[in-house]
Amino acid sequence: MSGWLRRNGIALGAVVVLVPTSLFVTFSSDWLGYWGQRATSPVVVERGADVDFGGAGWRVTEVQRIRSTELPPEAEAPAGTDAVVVSLEVSPEGPASPGAPASPGCLLDLVESRDGAPERSWSSDTGGGVDLDIDLDVPRGCDSERTGEYTMRAVFVVPSDAGDALQLHVEVGDQLPRYLSFRL
């Protein structure tokens, strides 16, 4: 070993330890905060099961797939697409009364997972791009104003080649990184 390495060995060892440590300390809070606000930890809910999550009870009550060949022309669905309608019962915790806890807000995504293929997902069609003549009194998404039990119907427009291995992902903001993953 040369004289220079012998004289500076301790300093070089300190640099090797301190540089990665300082980088970790500098960026770890941003990195952990980023991953803490993303839906990365699924709470898997099997078909037909109820779950308490984010201040409410959740249960998928019905899933209906309307094939592109069955959609009425007035639905104005894009060619080669199907509609998937998911009915979800939401029960805010506590009795339905003034001052009772309100239902949590949420984001809904329909996700398809196929072996060997990338995951695909679709957001609900809340804007009415496809008109299925669904009762307008039924919410088409989470309603954070409601204090009592209600059923929503989320409509998803998916390609006709989407498989049947679908999951409904429900994200409640204050529960992230956990989210519900209903097997449909």
Percentage of β-strand residues:
25-35%
Number of helices: 1
Radius of gyration: 24 Å
User: Judging from the principal axes of the Cα atoms, what is the shape?
Assistant: elongated
Low-confidence segments: none
Total individual domains: 2
Number of strands: 9
- What is the CATH T-level topology of the largest domain? Immunoglobulin-like
Mean residue pLDDT: 85
CATH class of the largest domain: Mainly Beta
**Roughly what percent helix?**
10-25%
CATH-derived architecture of the largest domain:
Sandwich
Q: Give, in spatial order, the strands making up the sheet with the most strands.
A: 1-9-8-5-6
- Written as H for each helix and E for each strand, in order along the chain, the element string is HEEEEEEEEE
Please state the structural category: alpha+beta
**What is the terminal-to-terminal distance?**
66 Å
Biggest pleated sheet: 5 strands, mixed
What can you see in these coordinates?
This protein has 184 residues and is an alpha+beta fold. The chain folds into two domains: 2-36, no CATH class; 43-183, Immunoglobulin-like (Sandwich), CATH 2.60.40. The chain has one helix and nine strands, in the order H-E-E-E-E-E-E-E-E-E. The chain has one helix at 3-36, and strands spanning 41-45, 51-53, 56-66, 81-92, 107-112, 120-123, 150-159, 166-171, 178-183. Strand 2 (51-53) and strand 3 form a beta hairpin. The mean pLDDT is 85.
